[in-house]
Amino acid sequence: MTVGLFIPCYVDQFYPKVAIATLELLEKQGLQVVYPLNQTCCGQPMANSGFEHLTQGCNNLFIQNFKEVDYIVSPSGSCVLHIKDHLHAEVGKEEAAATHIRKKIYELTEFLTDVVKVENIIARFPHKVGMHQSCHGQRGLKLSQMTELVADPFSKPEKLLRMVEGLELIDLNRKDECCGFGGTFCVTEEAVSAKMGKDRVKDHLEHGAEYITGADMSCLMHLEGILRRQNSKVQVKHIAEILNSYA
């Protein structure tokens, strides 16, 4: 099995340790991981802003970079969902490759849970941790159950976190509430976005979180900014960093 590692722009530029942790975590499962050096933005910011017709160059490059691998894995639910829903070829003969990619791209935790079927992770993180369920992952990729549904609860990220030695998952009042980031939403509606983020942070702080984790570094970046402005000692860590740690 060959896995293509897709690293989103903001992880590459601001949180490279998340990319490294993802790579190491996949390699620990005995997987052959390749990183196409020519990869760039998947086009999600343009699509979010109503300019999906300008993303074809991104689509073409993504297809060329990842069409030969068995699976594509990324530490970002929002970017994965964008590719799943919007990747199409400009040239008809490449559409088969685009279809293959749409079916074989996975967010990290769903890949570990559904494809690799991990039952044991050797990791240690002796801290109280709050899990932020990002909207793209929860409602788009079905990484966890929505609390408004009358259905059995589940959470793929939480299942993995419960394998980590010493980690204590805290309860939240509103465990699947949006943090307010929303991609370009946080730019066009910054006041609403900031208030939603403050509410999300408050829920974690009230329940004694030492760290806030999640499967989308974009949401965590938003929460991190609020925590810093509040001079809070609470830190954010992508789930890949926790699953790959042995503190």
From TrEMBL:
What would be an example GO MF term here? oxidoreductase activity
* InterPro entries (alphabetical): Cys_rich_dom (IPR004017)
Q: Provide GO CC annotations from the record.
A: cytosol
The positions making up the signal sequence are none
Q: Where is the Cysteine-rich domain?
A: 3-84, 129-223
What name does the UniProt record give this protein? (Fe-S)-binding protein
Species annotation: Adhaeribacter radiodurans
